């Protein structure tokens, strides 16, 4: 319309100088640019919400507003199944081995480590502000962001912020929030989800009033466990079931954890400390079912929060110019593999999380199978905002619209360092009677491609796992030689033997465990830069058997609590410099 006016003007004006015409067109075009701004982004990040345990079937507003009106990315994974490392990866677009924020507390993680690593001056909200966005945040940002350190320094990058602070982050009925540069405020007696709903709507109003496009992130604590810093039992803080809003307390009374094949199985499964877990008795199972219902109930407040936000956007004229992205920082297990409630594992329950995206051009009611990860989210926000990707991004933008022919990958790099943390009243199963289980350090690759669906991991005690999820979706049969009760001997992967598949997976993991930027996105190119190998399927060609057979193996020298390179065995794979022909390697 504007351009049409400009052209008519051009045609109508007779005898005007070229400069006058140019000025006229310029002024019309720049007015046009003002009225159609860059898209807004509303980002909702829940805490510990599973995909595998079916939580998304219990949130009708989220289904109606985002899932049905947008795309469900059903193969979306986190790369570290723990809040703080996962969030820092999300805000920087980098794997935890590149942020080196690998834990929830110092010295290896938490807010102080984020600051020490320089990210407070160099992360997503700052980049978005530089690209013309107004940025707002409310809810949980990091762990170890506390009533004592929130001002030293303040978190940068937000035009408006109201953060939950430790040790009250998970106190559903006594949360403490801290707004902009003001002192912390206690909300004793109010439900944290009511508080965040008010704050989120307030920021949405501010954002809608602004001249610039906005990025608003809302990070409620539900369905994370409740932690009352005063309720210490046996000398330990207990992470108990989440507390729903009163009006949701009685919902789902007959709902129980899905009884999948890996739910409290008769045979032990997994490796390391998981394989030693006893089968759960009836009282533990009943408690876990109660814990599960409490999570679903606590999520109802989030469902209503999303409804309020979308309704407010609808009342403005900005809904059609807003991308809404809904996800969680990591997944959750309860009872699978005999595990007490918690995350920190590499199983599907822990690493798969919901991801729904709606917005301009995003197909409605669509289910997308592409493999996507949290490392891809910062690149995706850049894509939406029209900013060129950074070279230090370890991921790549998610294909949100059919016209966007994104570069895809088939792998997910999963990594973890330090303690497993067990939740719930039966959580005191650590060696010292606490809820912390040491030596939960592992590296894994999750691979989904044409004809294969695999999980391969190497633990710091050098135990290995290999699950073929196409035949074993619940990860009960470890195919790694010498570990399975079943003989994995006749199982084949893409027609090749287990040991040939492992030689490729291990070499891939060798690259991924220290990859940076493009090598995280195209890991096979590191191994075989001269050959056209882009997938496991390509790499499994018999002509490469010698090359992969000669690779050093991923292994650990000891179990450490952080990313200590000296503990982590060989770092560099063999690289084929001139293209692999098998005779080079015999
Ligand atoms: C938001 O912050 C950025 C960076 O400081 C600034 O340029 C912009 O004007 C601010 N927006 C508003 C509405 O104050
Ligand atoms: C609630 O939190 C505040 C800190 O913000 C604390 O001073 C107060 O003691 C807490 N109340 C209870 C009942 O724990
Ligand atoms: C739950 O189960 C009980 C016992 O079978 C039944 O009486 C009750 O109606 C069920 N509640 C719901 C909400 O389905
Ligand atoms: C069930 O197991 C829990 C956790 O090990 C234990 O504390 C409890 O006493 C057991 N209950 C029964 C009835 O055996
Ligand atoms: C954890 O690993 C360390 C170092 O590898 C080892 O010394 C220690 O015994 C292990 N602890 C447990 C509980 O397995
Ligand atoms: C990660 O941080 C820890 C703690 O500061 C440090 O000891 C370690 O060397 C760092 N790792 C790398 C690879 O820089």
| CATH fold-type name of the largest domain | Alkaline Phosphatase, subunit A
What ligands does this structure carry?
2-acetamido-2-deoxy-beta-D-glucopyranose
Broad CATH class of the largest domain: Alpha Beta
Give the strand tally.
Answer: 22
Tally the helices: 17
EC number: 3.1.6.1
Keywords: Glycoprotein, Hydrolase, Signal
InterPro entries: Alkaline_phosphatase_core_sf, Arylsulfatase, Sulfatase_CS, Sulfatase_N
Protein name: Arylsulfatase
Structure overview:
The chain is α/β, with parallel strands linked by helices and 586 residues long. 28% of the residues lie in helices and 18% in strands. A ten-stranded mixed sheet has the order 7-6-5-4-8-1-11-12-2-13, with helices on both faces. Strands 15-18-19-20 form a four-stranded antiparallel sheet, with helices on one face. Strands 3-14 form a two-stranded parallel ribbon. A hairpin with a 2-residue loop joins strand 18 (442-449) and strand 19 (452-459). Helix 1 runs antiparallel to helix 2 and helix 3 packs across helix 10. It is globular and about 65 Å long. The chain starts with a helix and ends in a 37-residue tail after the last helix. Mean pLDDT is 92; it is low at 1-35 and 582-586. Bound molecules: 2-acetamido-2-deoxy-beta-D-glucopyranose (6 copies). One 2-acetamido-2-deoxy-beta-D-glucopyranose binds next to loops. This is Arylsulfatase. Residues 39-387 form the Sulfatase N-terminal domain.
């Amino acid at each position: 319309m504007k351009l049409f006016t400009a052209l008519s003007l051009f045609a109508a004006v007779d005898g005007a100088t070229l400069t006058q015409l140019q000025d006229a067109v310029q002024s019309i075009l720049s007015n046009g640019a003002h009225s159609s701004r860059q898209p807004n982004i509303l980002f909702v990040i829940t805490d510990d919400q599973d995909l595998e345990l079916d939580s998304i079937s219990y949130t009708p507003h989220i289904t109606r507003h985002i899932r049905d009106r947008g795309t469900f990315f059903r193969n979306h994974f986190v790369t570290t199944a723990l809040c703080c490392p996962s969030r820092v990866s999300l805000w920087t677009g980098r794997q935890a081995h590149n942020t080196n924020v690998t834990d929830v507390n110092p010295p290896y993680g938490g807010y102080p480590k984020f600051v020490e690593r320089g990210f407070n001056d160099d992360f997503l909200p700052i980049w978005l502000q530089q690209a013309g966005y107004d940025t707002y945040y409310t809810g949980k940002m990091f762990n170890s962001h506390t009533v004592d350190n929130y001002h030293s320094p303040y978190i940068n990058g937000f035009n408006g912020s109201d953060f939950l602070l430790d040790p009250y982050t998970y106190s559903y009925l006594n949360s403490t929030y801290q707004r902009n540069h003001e002192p912390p405020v206690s909300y004793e007696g109010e439900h944290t989800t009511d508080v965040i709903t008010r704050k989120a709507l307030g920021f949405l109003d501010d954002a809608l009033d602004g001249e610039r496009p906005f990025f608003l992130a809302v990070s409620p604590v539900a369905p994370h466990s409740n932690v009352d810093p005063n309720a210490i039992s046996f000398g330990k803080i207990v992470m108990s079931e989440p507390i729903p809003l009163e009006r949701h307390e009685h919902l789902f009374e007959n709902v129980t954890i899905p009884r999948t094949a890996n739910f409290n199985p008769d045979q032990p499964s997994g490796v390391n400390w998981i394989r030693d877990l006893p089968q759960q008795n009836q009282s533990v199972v009943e408690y876990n079912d109660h814990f599960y219902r409490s999570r679903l109930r606590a999520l109802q407040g989030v469902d209503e929060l999303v409804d309020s936000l979308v309704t407010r956007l609808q009342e403005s004229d900005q809904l059609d110019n807003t991308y809404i992205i809904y996800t969680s920082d990591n997944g959750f297990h309860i009872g699978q593999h005999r595990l007490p409630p918690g995350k920190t594992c590499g199983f599907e329950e822990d690493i798969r999380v919901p991801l729904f995206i709606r917005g301009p051009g995003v197909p409605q009611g669509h289910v997308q199978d592409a493999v996507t990860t949290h490392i891809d989210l910062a690149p995706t926000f850049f894509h939406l905002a029209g900013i060129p990707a950074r070279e230090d991004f370890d991921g790549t933008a998610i294909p949100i619209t059919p016209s966007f022919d994104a570069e895809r990958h088939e792998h997910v790099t999963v990594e973890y360092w330090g303690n497993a943390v067990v939740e719930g009243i039966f959580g005191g199963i650590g060696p010292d009677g606490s809820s912390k289980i040491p030596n939960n350090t592992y590296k894994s690759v999750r691979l989904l491609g044409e004809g294969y669906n695999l999980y391969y991991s190497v633990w710091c005690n050098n135990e290995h796992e290999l699950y073929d999820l196409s035949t074993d979706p619940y990860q009960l049969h470890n195919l790694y030689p010498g570990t399975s009760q079943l003989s994995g001997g006749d199982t084949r992967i893409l027609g090749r033997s287990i040991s040939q598949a492992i030689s490729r997976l291990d070499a891939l993991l060798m690259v991924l465990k220290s990859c940076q930027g493009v090598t995280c996105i195209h890991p096979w190119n590191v191994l075989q830069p001269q050959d056209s190998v882009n997938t496991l399927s390509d790499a499994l060609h018999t002509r490469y058997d010698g090359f992969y057979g000669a690779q050093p193996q991923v292994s650990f020298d000891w179990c450490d609590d952080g990313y200590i390179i000296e503990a982590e065995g060989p770092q560099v794979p063999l690289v084929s410099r001139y293209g692999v022909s098998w005779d080079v390697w015999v």
